[in-house]
Amino acid sequence: MSIFGKIKDAIFGADDNDDTQTATRTATAPSTRSAVPPPAAQPRTTTFSRAPVKEVDVEERLGKRGEGQDLNWRSSIVDLMKLLGIDSSYDNRKELAEELGRSDYSGSAEDNIWLHKATMKELAKNGGRVPASMLD
């Protein structure tokens, strides 16, 4: 699983909350009780979608999770990853940066600021409600 996928799942919950998932069920038509055999039963496919998931308040969820911890997750990618129980090593941050479109990640303070904002923007694209202060 991607690093961003781990971050998203840690905040939003498991993938089973994905509102784009559909389930398909196949059943056979019921048989009749006549002496004449019924025509070949045709499979019937029913598709249904799960109800859309409400927008997730990222700041609220992270705030609850971070209560009592001395982590600056609102602006630090390292602290955000620590809060979520994800390895915040340079290699993982570099991989996350590559997932989010940056191939020249060096681990500098500027890169980490960019990575935090890019992560928050991606969470917002995926149904998270993120305060503007974390996006700018």
TrEMBL record:
Indicate, by first and last residue, each region the UniProt record lists as having compositional bias (Low complexity). Answer: 20-35
SUPFAM superfamilies registered for this protein in UniProt: RPA2825-like
Q: Where is this region: Disordered?
A: 13-45
Q: Name one Pfam family in it.
A: DUF3597
Q: Where is the DUF3597 domain?
A: 3-131
**Superkingdom of source:** Bacteria
Name the InterPro entries for this protein: DUF3597
Which named protein is this? DUF3597 domain-containing protein
